[in-house]
Amino acid sequence: MIVKNQDFQRSVFLSSSNSVVSSMYEWSNSVVEFFKLRAANDNLSEENTTLKNQIINLRNKLSTLQKDGDDTLHFQIPPEMEYQFISAKVINSSTNKLQNYITINKGKVDGISVDMGVISDEGVVGIVKNVSDHFAVVIPVLNPKIEISCRFKRNNYSGSLLWSGEDYRYANLTDIARHVELSLGDTLITSGLTTTFPEGIPVGIIEDFNIKESDAYYKIQVKLAVNFRTLSHVKVINYLNYKEQRNLEINSEEQ
Prior knowledge:
It is a single chain. The protein is of the alpha+beta class and 255 residues long. It has three domains: 2-61; 83-143 and 231-249, Thrombin, subunit H, CATH 2.40.10; 148-224, Thrombin, subunit H (Beta Barrel), CATH 2.40.10. It is built from three helices and 14 strands. The protein has helices spanning 2-5, 7-63, 242-254; strands at 65-67, 73-75, 83-93, 102-104, 117-119, 124-131, 136-140, 148-152, 158-162, 170-174, 187-190, 202-210, 219-224, 233-239. The strands form three sheets. Strands 3-4-7-6-5-14 form a six-stranded antiparallel barrel. A six-stranded antiparallel barrel has the order 8-9-10-13-12-11. A two-stranded antiparallel sheet has the order 1-2. The longest helix is centred in the N-terminal third of the chain and has 57 residues, at 7-63.
């Protein structure tokens, strides 16, 4: 009755109610925008993967472009460079265990299979371990069950990256002999010596190293390129000639 019959009280009430309603609308709009942003990020990841596949294809063609005797241009892409990326979203992961795992929302129906390499825009993530129709489990770098073959970008010396189980930001590089010259900040990339990862994917940088007079190999700490605490989207590497190469290697081992 006071609000209805008194002009001043009515104006105060309407002003207050409008403020409350506006705040509710603003909150509601923020929630809607949050979910729209997540969908936009998923779409952006898909588009980015499509563009990356196109760039790789064009780069491979340009790098192998040659002239025939009659000046006709042709290209022959090396078999180890024939690969594509499949985008996926991380739906479950851990970083605080000795053996960590990542679950992604792509599986067999999307072309994912066991032993495929997994990367992000930052660098190496891990290797596919198990696959169902619509999901896949990845063993990340943060798991001592896998070793990543990598090399120094500036001098090509290669070693194996192995996680010690202590800090999700760091791993150890092994098999680097004492005669190799090292510097803090040296960049590590994938070596290309396995079918899992093509050459040149970022792995990390040298954070610390030391060696005793009696040691033949360095103890090297690597700061990983990927921040596994914020990892949300990945790319699975489909090496198109994997089966042919792997079957040949298995047959050679059996002979």
